[in-house]
Design goal:
The complex is a heterodimer of chains A (119) and B (116). Chain A has 119 residues and is mainly beta. Chain A has one helix spanning 97-101; strands spanning 3-5, 10-14, 19-21, 24-26, 32-39, 46-52, 59-61, 64-69, 74-79, 88-96, 108-109, 113-118. In chain A, strands 2, 5, 6, 10, 11 and 12 form a six-stranded mixed beta sheet that branches. In chain A, β8 (64-69) and β9 (74-79) form a beta hairpin. Classes of the chains: A mainly beta (119), B mainly beta (116). The A-B interface holds A 31, 33, 35, 37, 42-47, 50, 52, 91, 95, 97, 100, 103-107, 109-112, 114 and B 2, 32, 34, 41-44, 46, 49, 57, 91, 93, 95, 101-102, 104-110, 112.
Amino acid sequence: AQKVTQAQTEISVVEKEDVTLDCVYETRDTTYYLFWYKQPPSGELVFLIRRNSFDEQNEISGRYSWNFQKSTSSFNFTITASQVVDSAVYFCALSALGDIIQGAQKLVFGQGTRLTINP
Amino acid sequence: GAVVSQHPSWVICKSGTSVKIECRSLDFQATTMFWYRQFPKQSLMLMATSNEGSKATYEQGVEKDKFLINHASLTLSTLTVTSAHPEDSSFYICSAREGGWGETQYFGPGTRLLVL
């Protein structure tokens, strides 16, 4: 079965600090996709990134960066120079081919990390 | 691009009434739509998956007759909570996906349901 673990339930930092959100996943499949979503207080989930299992290149988008390491089954997310607007719940999610073959098309979510950026 | 709308955003109803929530993909055709439920400070719980023109596939423990899902077109799916009770009060979120299993799900803004 597929599983996503976000061990950090809540993180609180002061503005301008760098912060890393951890995501560890479990799957027996070699073909899978990983995602990060942001859920601000308004409730809507905002898509941040999608990464397939064959692409281990790290990605940077402005102040956001992602570190994908298959060796440790991790897909960590770093915010550099954090801002108050970054305050939200962040979800890591996994979609694996095995689930699809068995008839499920699920996106397996972690429990989320509540990030608070204090001024 | 990839915008999903949901209506209504808020609904308050009396116990025993039915509530319909609409989910629309505004700028793409959604081959698959998903309905989730989220309790406060918890992760998303998938309720059902629907493909256009097909019956929805419900997750274990989700009552099909309670949560009616219709995916009438490639841009519209509806969730009807029938005979709503206070325990159905929750945040309901839909998502839509164009293409196959590895493609991105784009989420609507959610609907907060309060059953009195």
